[in-house]
Amino acid sequence: MIAPARRRSVARGLAAVMAAAALIATGGCATSTTGTAPSPSATPPSTTTALRTTAAPSIVAAADSGVSWAPAAQAQLHPGVQAYTGDSQCTTNFVFTDARGEVYFGQAAHCGHVGTEKLPNGCTATTVPIGTPVDLRTGGSLRTRGTTEATGTLAYDSWAAMQAAGEKDPNACAHNDFALIRLPKNVVGAVNPSLPHWGGPVDLDVDRVSAGDRAYGYGDSSLRGGRNALSPHIGLVQATADPGTGGWAHTVTAVRPGVPGDSGAGYVDAQGRALGTLSTLSLSVPPRNTLSDLSRELRYAQQHSGIPGLRLVLGTEPFHS
After folding, report:
1. Where is the signal peptide (predicted)?
2. pTM for this entry
């Protein structure tokens, strides 16, 4: 893990009057006070990649998933909505489904962390239990709770799974930062799997990103107070994978990085393939975000979640950068 990186959920402990920059500098967390909320492309958009289905068992085209998705322009629920696990506010990444037709949003495992460590180890840290309710909201800020669009339940937590499996790989323990929120059946019709602003994902990136490539993400930190124009992120990948992480992490630099509350946000590579999930912020110049590699996180979940046929759902909208 890159020091002095910080996990970036929005959690209790800081006053609402603090500015976002101060929150980053003091530990990467934000909160609310009692009675308030818990805690652009440089070139014109153009279609660059057509949606497709591959033979990979980890993905499924939206049209082949057996789910009736809401049109992207009308969906109340989509990647990038705010997820509140207790007082911790994070951002959902991608949409997943399984062999039983259940639908899930991904988020960061550290969003359910119970403790005070600034950079906890996933193989030892305590998290909320499976089955914990997770509110999916829009418009939440430090002043308002926003609108609860649905309440799901925590169905998988990579930290708990690694502890149950006795995981010994230090790279997995440091960077496998992934959880799944199962949605109730009655809200699935309001879901669209496309990444806002960018479209896609069109595939799953499996060790195909290179240093210097662009990465595109979408976060919805409550620190922004609903200013969605600041939600799309563009970064540059600094290495194929961080040296010494076994491919589990990618470093991305950006003038406008992900901030506390963007934790868990989904990123795609320059071709629109799902690349990673936002995990940490490192205070360097320029600031660096660490993405946990989604292909490894998903493979681990397939092996340890007990969820049959778990797959990433591709977007209904084409990717454009």
Report:
1. 1-30
2. 0.84
**How far apart, in whole angstroms, are the C-alpha atoms of residue 204 and residue 80?**
18
Look-up of token digits 């660490």: 290
Which of helix, strand or coil describes residue 186? helix
Residues 276 and 179 in one domain: no
Q: Could you tell me the two tokens for 159?
A: 């930290």
CA-nearest of 277, 280, 231 to 260 is: 280
pLDDT digits (tens, 9 = 90+) for 213-236: 999 999 988 887 666 667 899 999
CA pair distance 221, 10, nearest whole angstrom: 8
**Which CATH number do you get for residue 212?**
2.40.10.10
Helix (H) / strand (E) element for 204: namely: strand 203-204
**Do the domain assignments include residue 52?**
no
The predicted-structure confidence for 51-82, as pLDDT tens digits, reads as follows: 333 334 799 999 999 999 999 999 999 999 99
Question: In residues, how long is the chain?
Answer: 321
